[in-house]
Design a protein that fits this description.
Helix content: 25-40%
Number of helices: 12
Distance between the termini: 21 Å
Largest sheet: 7 strands, parallel
Strand order of the largest sheet: 8-7-6-9-10-11-12
Radius of gyration: 21 Å
CATH superfamily of the largest domain: NAD(P)-binding Rossmann-like Domain
Strand content: 5-15%
Order of helices and strands: EHEHEHEHEHHEHEHEHEHEHEEH
Number of domains: 2
Number of strands: 12
Low-confidence stretches: none
Length: 317
């Protein structure tokens, strides 16, 4: 079979070869494209003869998939799959598997990097240090003894909740599915409304779908404390970012740490959060650690082996 890695996976070619060894030993051809493109014609050219395509976070829609006539499996090197045309894959009988859990530690750690950067004014402190400015007014806020609200207690949300407890926070959570291991860790589930009202830090860890689109909008932000901060390392579309920017500029909340936007960065200079007050923005890199990127490569090839053995894992459709 022909396996096409249709975009870079963020690791060296040597590591790709190492991860792909298990499928090459079975006689499969592996083609790796080291450049990223969103041009549909180029993507069709790359994938048209593939039996299996490995894709990361590149938008992969019907306008490409319909020309990949041999495609049987789409192994997604990502946890979220809202960039994949899942309905069309299901219609065509193409199995889609994801790389569940590969970036749990990486995303959780960056959430706290953002939290501390916002609470302790780290970007401003860095700037002042470089230009010999004054540290007057750069008094920060501690995490210790704060109420930390986790929205969504999947693998990442649960990890964040446990780290927050290690910082000495009072952790509360809201999730569609309440998990026993979270409760056993002493974390209380509350309604979303109560979480927003009580929390000093609100951290989002939900997938993007019809139910979560703009889950945090103007009304929800209005429930937050003026001293609270919002963290989003989930998906850009789960927040109304215009409403968030307005709240920040009007000092209705104290700050925000944002890694995800409605589109993949680079974002336009006109994006409402670019000039919003008290923000730390990162270009969708929460998942991007050396360890996580190599782990996801192992997972996508493992998905192929399991699919071939009729014991598929991490199946979306």
């Amino acid at each position: 079979m022909k396996i096409v890695i249709i975009e870079p996976l963020g690791i060296t070619l040597e590591k790709v070869e190492e991860a792909a060894k298990v499928v090459k030993q079975k006689g499969h051809e592996v083609v790796y494209y080291e450049t990223r493109t969103e041009n549909a014609e180029e993507l069709v050219e790359r994938g048209k003869d593939a039996d299996i395509i490995i894709v990361a976070n590149l938008p992969f829609r019907k306008n490409v998939i319909e020309y990949c006539q041999n495609l049987k499996l789409l192994s997604v090197a990502f946890t979220g799959v809202d960039h994949i045309d899942i309905d069309y894959c299901k219609q065509k009988g193409i199995m889609v598997c994801n790389a569940a859990g590969y970036s749990t530690n990486a995303v959780a750690e960056l959430a706290f990097g953002l939290a501390i950067s916002v609470l302790r004014n780290i970007p401003a402190c860095d700037n002042v240090t470089r230009v010999e400015g004054t540290k007057a007014g750069l008094v920060g806020t501690e995490l210790y003894n704060k109420t930390f609200g986790v929205v969504g207690t999947g693998a990442i949300g649960t990890k964040v909740a446990l780290i927050a407890k290690a910082f000495g926070c009072n952790v509360i959570a809201y999730s569609r599915t309440e998990r026993e291991n979270v409760k056993q860790a002493g974390i209380q589930y509350v309604s979303l409304e109560e979480l927003l009202k009580q929390s000093d830090i609100v951290s989002l860890h939900v997938p993007f779908n019809n139910e979560t689109k703009e889950l945090i909008g103007k009304e929800q932000i209005s429930l937050m404390k003026k001293t609270a901060i919002l963290l989003n390392t989930a998906r850009g579309g789960v927040v109304d970012n215009k409403a968030l920017a307005d709240a920040l500029n009007e000092q209705k909340i104290a700050g925000a740490g944002i890694d995800v936007f409605e589109m993949e960065p680079p974002i336009a200079k006109t994006h409402p959060l670019v000039n919003a007050k008290h923000t730390v923005l990162t270009p969708h890199v929460a998942f991007a650690s050396d360890e996580a990127l190599y782990t996801r490569a192992l997972i996508v090839f493992d998905n192929i082996i399991n699919w071939e053995a009729n014991t598929p894992k991490n199946v979306i459709v």
